[in-house]
Design goal:
The protein is of the alpha+beta class. The protein has 2 domains: 87 residues, no CATH class; 53 residues, SH3 Domains (SH3 type barrels). The chain is 25% helix and 22% strand. The longest helix is centred in the middle third of the chain and has 13 residues. It starts with 11 loop residues before the first strand and ends with a strand. The model has no long low-confidence stretch (mean pLDDT 90).
Length: 169
């Protein structure tokens, strides 16, 4: 089976599509999954011209969201103008409130109150200790203006942690 976005004949993985029906997933290749979670390479996403007409609503939603992220490219603007989604799928694609900009090291969305685990020993500046790998941080807070930062309590101290050093539990 080939990836609906880049047509690569590779092993496909299931990717959860946030903001829609529970359990909504799309099958994508590892390269597309990595770019969906991170910084997209515009030249990789030329396949959106066919993916946006895919029969699976989850694929259509990802295509719509990627076109929006790539809106600086003229070809992406042209495709976005051509895109038609039914009302339910359009609302799902625009449901950005459900999409957390805060992502853990594996790309999983983080939410207020989640529990995360440190994946690296982290020296805590000003506190004189090192937060050890494997430490669970319960009841995190999201730093609103900075999606790379969360706050949590480690050894009784409230600290700011980079999301690249945690995984969701």
């Amino acid at each position: 089976m080939s990836c609906p976005f880049c047509s690569a004949d590779a092993e496909l993985i299931f990717l959860d599509v946030e903001g829609g029906p529970a359990g909504a997933q799309a099958q994508v290749c590892a390269v597309c999954a990595e770019q969906i979670a991170g910084v997209p390479d515009p030249s990789h996403w030329r396949g959106l011209a066919s993916a946006m007409w895919h029969e699976a609503p989850a694929v259509q939603v990802i295509a719509a969201r990627m076109l929006k992220r790539l809106s600086g490219e003229s070809w992406a603007q042209d495709l976005a103008e051509q895109l038609y989604l039914d009302d339910v799928t359009q609302a799902w694609a625009e449901n950005v409130a459900a999409q957390s900009a805060h992502k853990d090291a594996n790309g999983a969305a983080l939410a207020q109150g989640d529990t995360v685990v440190l994946i690296k020993d982290l020296p805590v500046k000003g506190a004189g200790f090192t937060a050890k790998r494997g430490t669970a941080v319960r009841g995190i807070s999201l730093v609103a203006d900075t999606p790379e930062h969360i706050e949590g309590r480690v050894e009784g101290q409230r600290i700011v942690i980079l999301t690249q050093y945690v995984k969701k539990k």
